Amino acid sequence: MSGSDQLHVVTSDDISDSRRRMGRALVWGSAALMALVAAAQVAQTAGWRDFGFANWRPTLYAYCLFATCLCWAQVLVRGEQGKRTLFVLPAALFVISLTVFPLLFGLVIAFSNWNLSSLSGRQFNGTANLVQMWHDPFYWNALGNMVIYVAAIVVEYAIAFGLALILAGQIRARKFWRVSFLMPLMLSPVAVSWMIGKSMLEPRFGPLARLARALGIENPSFFESPWMAKLTIMVLDAWTFIPFMMIMLLAGLQAIPKELQEASRVDGASGWKSFWEITFPLMLPVSVTAILIRIIFKLKLADIVITITSGGPGGATDTVTSFIFREYRERSNVGYGTMLAMVYLVLIVIGMTILMKLAARLTRPRT
Amino acid sequence: MTDTPAPIFRDSDSDRSFRMRWWAGRAAIYGVLALWAVICLFPIYWTATTSFKMAPNVMQGQMIPWPADWTPEGDWAKKLFFAPKWKGWESIGLSPEALGRESTARAEFVKRFGNSAIVALSASTLAVVLGSLAAYGLSRFRYRFGFMKNDDISFFFLSQLILPPVVLALPFLVLYKELALLDTRIGLILLYTLTVLPIVIWIMKDQFETIPTELEEAALVDGLSIWGAFLTIILPIALPGMVAAFILSLVLTWNEYFFAALLTSTHANTLPVMVASQTGSQGINWWSMAALSFAAILPLIVIGVLLERFIIKGMAAGAVK
Predict the structure, then answer these.
(1) In the predicted structure, residue B161 carries a pLDDT above the cut 80
(2) What is the secondary structure of A72-130 as a DSSP string?
(3) Are A296 and B162 within 8 A, CB to CB?
């Protein structure tokens, strides 16, 4: 894809055999040390022999040592090529050790009954968690809610696009508007849920409740009926994330060459028509990127739900994340929660793959 | 009007209607802008003013802080104006009088604030360092790790973005418990670095790809090593992108709640956890909650106002190719 703009430098390396041997020795030596420490720790947990470890930290340190040696040995063994590998290797090791390993570990947990607060420890229970999940109406309800929440992105997108169009046009005090429109994104969702969810929407004294009453609504309540609560959460989340989409779309709008719009105006197209025929099609790739990223963020929605409604009323506002959070907090069963999360991950990966395929087809330049 | 002689230069009716439409369009645009600005800023104003209110002010719905001496007479003034008090700030030990004396509430707040600052700053720094290196490598060299080539490696990094935090949360809870990393700042820093790393790599890769490779080629010919060229030539040019990535990471990590709520309990609590834990207890204590929330969002408001163009640059990266 990006072959032409890469750096091509041929360097001759003179790596002596002893240096190469030392590099290999470093890698294998530290790996052996790590294996040794890990084996000792396993032996202690299994109760064969007591080495006096308080926790698994020694293995962690051995792993860090191994990772450092691995990076160092790259340069020792492979010279210039190794120095290049050194750019990517630390990040790759970091991500692998912090996601791949916990994910594999999570798979083990997902198939077990493990209550952290009880002393019995982990028990393998096969697919019992899956069966329980299948019969758990609250989990399916949370998944359904996620679909509704994601669908709300269409409205967010429309608003964000409108604002971006205005900001890209001829206006005064552009910087002021941009900064104030950006503000909601900077605020912590937890603070927002207090500021808006708990105080501004408070049914008796909140300013928005007062406004609603002034508009003739008796007893405004924003979190009582399931649909109203869902809607309020959507609005709150939209409030935080519309700036994000707006800025991406604004960047896209500013990258469109001015001549195109001018040409369409000369040809006599009205503003509305030139938007649909020129601006919107040109913005399609940016729009798709913005929406995809927004979906990814939306799927993580939890903070405001946990802090404002904690899923209520009756699970109407639950997201998958907030549901698992509550499930863990109430029963501290790690196994079941992990299984729910794993199923969620699989659904997300399938869904996102389909969406990305569709998006690629949608944005493919038409000839 | 009809008997005055017709002026020589006169706007035709169509011109006039055009100007009317133009003014109407302007008015509509500024109307929308003003409305949205109110929607964005009013909650912040509300929180800031509520932190200076007392119970009666909240119940009567007074909105504008105004010194008591200058409050004009009349019922309308009573409905609008209230005399600001430091009660809310006193409850977290940050009012002018409370600053002079010892206060456990302030000590608590400062501790949480410090935790948040340390965790957010270190995680963002670590992510920018690791991410910039990886992004530079991926934008300049051709790699092959087993079956994985450059595009696969990039995709591997970016795909971490899809991973919802809840999938990692419980395994991490168990792992951290075994590693004695539960309720420590290091544990949070590692996790936060992981969550913002894909974003940093995305922004930085975009940044490095705009820098021509001739620069390094020249530097290499002049005898610098590849790391020397990277550190002395490329990094200074890529600095704006790094700042953008850093600020964006800072915003995300400062505001993070989910992991902090699960993985910390007493020592390493961050500010969002403190804010969230207050809401349940003792009813709603409006003024102190407002003060606490406002103190929690203030640093980011300042950053947002001062460094807005970096944030926008960061978010725009990758949107436009």
Answers:
(1) yes
(2) HHHHHHHHHHHHHHHHHHHHHHHHIIIIIHHHHHHHHHHTEE-BTTSSS--EE-TTHHH
(3) yes
Q: Closest chain B residue to A103 measured between Cα atoms?
A: B168
Q: Which residues of A touch B112 (CB under 8 A)?
A: none
List the single range of A12-21, A276-285, A325-334, B10-19 with lowest mean pLDDT: B10-19
Total count of domains within chain A: 2
> Do residue B145 and residue B208 come from a single domain?
yes
pLDDT at residue A295, as a whole number: 92
β-partners of residue B64 are B81
**CATH at A218:** 1.10.3720.10
Beta strands, E only, B38-110: 64-65, 81-82
Distance to chain B for A262, nearest Cα, Å: 18
What is the predicted pLDDT for the residue at B264?
87
- Residues of chain A with Cβ-Cβ distance to B206 below 8 Å are none
Q: Which domain holds residue B65?
A: 44-85
Q: Which of residues 114-173 of A touch B (CB under 8 A)?
A: 114, 116, 162-163, 166, 169, 171
CA dihedral for A5, A10, A14, A18, sign (positive or negative): positive
- Residue B215 distance to chain A (closest CA, Å): 10
Band of the pLDDT at A42, cuts 50, 70, 90? confident
Please identify which residue in the block is written with the tokens 């369409």: A264
B289: domain CATH number? Answer: 1.10.3720.10
Chain A residues touching residue B82 (CB < 8 angstroms)? none
CB contact residues (below 8 A), chain A span 89-118, against chain B: 90-92, 94-95, 98-99, 102-103, 105-106, 109, 114, 116
Nearest residue, CB atoms, B134 vs list A91, A98, A163: A91
Mean of per-residue pLDDT scores for chain B: 84
Number of domains in chain B: 2
Long-range interactions of A18-23: CB distance < 8 A, separation 24+: A19/A76, A19/A77, A20/A76, A20/A77, A22/A76, A23/A72, A23/A73, A23/A74, A23/A75, A23/A76, A23/A77
Provide the shortest C-alpha distance from residue B96 to chain A (in Å).
24
**Residues A94 and A223 occupy one common structural domain:** no
Range of the domain at A216: 134-363
Candidates B119, B141, B103; CA nearest to B249 is B119
Q: Give, rounded to a whole angstrom, the gap between the first and last alpha carbons of chain B.
A: 60
pLDDT for the residue numbered A4: 47
Q: Which residue in A187, A255, A307 is closest to B276 by CB distance?
A: A307
**Tally of CB atoms within 10 A around A33:** 16
pLDDT digits (tens, 9 = 90+) for A249-281: 998 888 888 888 788 878 877 778 888 888 888
Q: Which residues of A touch B289 (CB under 8 A)?
A: 194, 198-199
pTM of this structure:
0.88
With respect to residue B91, please indicate whether it lies within any of the assigned structural domains: no
- From chain B residues 64-123, the ones with a CB under 8 A of any chain A CB are none
Q: Are B133 and A325 within 8 A, CB to CB?
A: no
